[in-house]
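Title: Prediction job returns without error message
Component: structure pipeline
Severity: low
Priority: P3
Assignee: unassigned

Description:
Job completed but the reporter wants confirmation the result is attached to the right record. Sequence as submitted:
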Amino acid sequence: MFDSRWRVTFQYCNRIWTYSFPPTLVTFRRSDAELWARMVLNNSDPEFASLPREAVRCLSVRYEQDVFCRERATAWAALNDCGAIRNEYTRHLLGPGDTPRDDAWRSELRHVHQSYRDRVIGHGRTREEILTGLDDSPADLDLRLYTSDGGVYWNDVFADIAKAAMSEWRFTPYGVLWIDNG
């Protein structure tokens, strides 16, 4: 599943506006994305509309592709565990000399990656999405136990999962993984 978007940022003096919209609204040309963002902001933000067009500088026009993929998430977690990624909050790979990339390392990486594939309980954009989509799975939780006044007390759910110490959450650029450690 892809959730891509254009992100356009404008600046006037110390004021910054950022506008995001899906690529279906305009073609894939940067100039069209900038024009679309200016038009929408002119119609929706009186402060932006009152400024002279030449005075508002376009700082950036970026096409961001959000990749949501279980296989990429498990691969990213394995690369992180094998030392190929600086830390779990960044996508930056280490340089070739920073960690050995010999056959033993590749074998370990394959083993860790397969281990994650086998132990994934759920994958989603958020922990809540994973837990609400577990119908008819062996890990199905009865969320009614945590519901009151029509809302789920997610902090209590996550605290009970952590207390059991049988699983872990892995947050990756490609989605959240719920991993079975039991």
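Comment from assignee: result matches the submitted record. The chain has two domains: 5-64, 70-180.
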